[in-house]
Specification:
This protein has 533 residues and is an alpha+beta fold. The protein is 48% helix and 19% strand. It has 17 helices and 18 strands. The strands form five sheets. The chain has a four-stranded antiparallel beta sheet with strand order 6-7-1-18. Strand 6 and strand 7 form a beta hairpin. Helix 15 packs parallel to helix 17 and helix 16 packs antiparallel against helix 17. The longest helix is centred in the last third of the chain and has 31 residues. The two termini are 20 Å apart.
């Protein structure tokens, strides 16, 4: 019973691969991941689990560098990275230590500034004034900052409910790194609006002083929040809010963020100022002044005040008694739902370590959904024409259905397996990937023709031994050609060349599937059809 399986295991392996590809393409368990607030049917882009990139689904592509300058080969002079950051920041006007970073790996030491208002000359002067020697200053940020920015941008896309969005780092010919963001099915305005803001959210306190209105900044920052709810609109009003919980944990001997915020609110007199629902915050965002003697909480995004509000009397009493920090819950109130949604996304995803220079050295482009659908239809027609053309030439050459038909079916099985792989890993199909599929069909049939010619060119195949001898000779040629293709395509994967990497990945995968699965399976099929005994 096991003898037929042993003789035809290569054909059975091909069948298993095709069945596995079918499961990956159609089983709901392998459907695309959903973004927050999105259901599975919204994330799925058709009857299959295939995901389509910008070329085939429409959407927006943004390519922009992170703003900043990096000094390389820096001599820290025995100082710690934190001391270096503080010293350099002190030499830059209106630049805090959070906009200066260090990167240390083995013997490589770098210092970066991510403040968009700092020029290269100012950064060089600050490095010199701080007393740190360096080899050179280049435009751009450190690898650590790029990796963090990539992670945060992906988080912003996911939290905003934009399914299928991707972020990667690409390098130009000049060596400058860019963030490449692709969001299928979304307009340029929404994507650029999501990316162009750094997304730094914090709570300040404005309070009356002898010299007018003073501001205590950053009484709460993004890292202080433990739980962030979704944006919610109040019934019957345009006001919206984001429910949050402030973290009440800290290292031994340190004050927790909840306790610190509670103490700041108490010190600024919120309890005495807000004793009834009629007490109001009268902060003027244009002048930066308070119209009465009541302190105000200021909700800021990227340094701009988006809302100011007072405090419920019960909440103020709870903070004054010290009980509020145990729960740490309150609501960030905004004037409209869109602002509340932006704040929720920024708090969940985090603040970008540096701004994206979209309007300067960056570029953005949009493909409409209708245009993407046209590309999809044209790609399907092109693929069908390619298969028909190859099938026609094969039948004209051999005029034997027993040889030509398995050849076409095997080549199509190879493409089907690649589609299953794309669905399994949710790789978005682009025009470059479709080109890779067509290349796989061409090279695959070419290899199968080599097998058929080698086996049939020296006369009748009258035994399995003769077939195996001829098949091995053909397989050596196919293996050498496959190795050449893999070596030629590999640089396209390693180098940051955008869509070309997809072409290379699927061409190499097609070659590997062909050499390891489909070519041997076709050999077994051909052997069964041609051998007499």
């Amino acid at each position: 019973m096991l003898e037929p399986i042993k003789k035809n295991w290569r054909i059975l392996l091909l069948v298993v691969v095709v069945l596995g590809a079918t499961v990956a393409l159609f089983a709901p368990q392998f459907g695309p991941q959903t973004a927050p607030g999105e259901n599975a049917s919204e994330a799925q882009q058709g009857i299959t689990n295939l995901q389509y990139g910008l070329d085939l689904a429409g959407g927006t592509r943004v390519r922009a560098p992170l703003v900043g300058y990096t000094a390389t080969g820096v001599d820290f002079g025995g100082d710690t990275p934190v001391e270096v950051e503080e010293a350099v920041a002190a030499e830059l006007d209106d630049t805090g230590a959070r906009n200066v970073g260090t990167y240390v790996e083995d013997d490589a030491r770098q210092v970066e500034v991510t403040d968009s208002s700092v020029s290269e000359e100012q950064f060089r002067a600050a490095m010199d004034a701080a007393g740190y020697g360096y080899e050179d200053v280049r435009a751009g940020v450190t690898p650590e900052t790029r990796d963090l920015a990539q992670e945060i941008i992906q988080g912003k896309i996911n939290e905003a409910g934009l399914s299928g969005g991707s972020v990667q780092q690409v390098q130009s010919i000049s060596g400058r790194y860019f963030m490449l963001v692709e969001v299928p099915g979304e307009g340029r305005e929404n994507v650029v609006s999501l990316l162009q803001e750094r997304g730094t959210v914090q709570i300040d306190i404005a309070y009356p002083s002898d010299n007018g209105t003073a501001v205590q900044e950053a009484v709460l920052i993004q890292d202080d929040f433990e739980n962030i709810g979704t944006a919610t609109q109040r019934e019957g009003t345009t006001q919206s809010y984001v429910p949050v919980t402030v973290r009440n944990t800290a290292a031994d001997g340190d004050q927790s963020p909840a306790q610190g915020f509670q103490q700041a609110v108490t010190d600024r007199g919120f309890q005495s100022a807000y004793q009834s629902q009629q007490d109001r915050c009268e902060y003027n965002s244009e002048t930066g002044e308070i119209g009465n003697d009541n302190p105000c909480l200021l909700l800021t995004v990227d340094g701009e005040v988006v809302n100011s509000f007072g405090m419920d009397p019960d909440l103020a009493d709870s903070m004054a008694s010290g009980a509020w920090a145990d729960t740490g819950s309150f609501q960030l109130t905004t004037g409209d739902f869109a602002t509340a949604e932006t704040i929720s996304v920024n708090l969940r995803a985090g603040a970008l370590p540096a701004e994206l220079d979209i309007s300067g050295q960056g570029t953005s482009s949009t493909i409409s959904a209708a245009q993407g659908e046209n590309y999809k239809n044209y790609s399907l027609v092109t693929g069908i024409l390619a298969v028909l053309a190859v099938a026609g030439m094969v039948f004209l050459r051999y005029r034997e259905p027993a040889v030509a038909l398995p050849m076409i079916v095997t080549a199509l099985a190879e493409v089907y397996a690649l589609l299953g792989f794309a669905a399994l890993v949710s790789y978005p199909l682009e025009l470059a990937v479709i080109a890779g599929f067509i290349a796989v069909v061409g090279t695959g049939v070419d290899d199968l023709v080599i097998i058929a010619d080698e086996v049939m060119s020296e006369g009748e195949v009258n035994s399995r031994t003769v077939f195996d001898s001829r098949f091995r000779r053909a397989f050596w040629v196919i293996g050498a050609a496959a190795a050449t293709t893999i070596v030629a395509m590999s640089p396209l994967i390693v180098l940051s060349l955008g869509d070309l990497s997809g072409f290379a990945i699927f061409t190499i995968l097609g070659v590997l599937i062909g050499v390891l699965i489909t070519r041997p399976a076709y050999g077994d099929i051909l052997r069964r059809l041609l051998t007499i005994r």
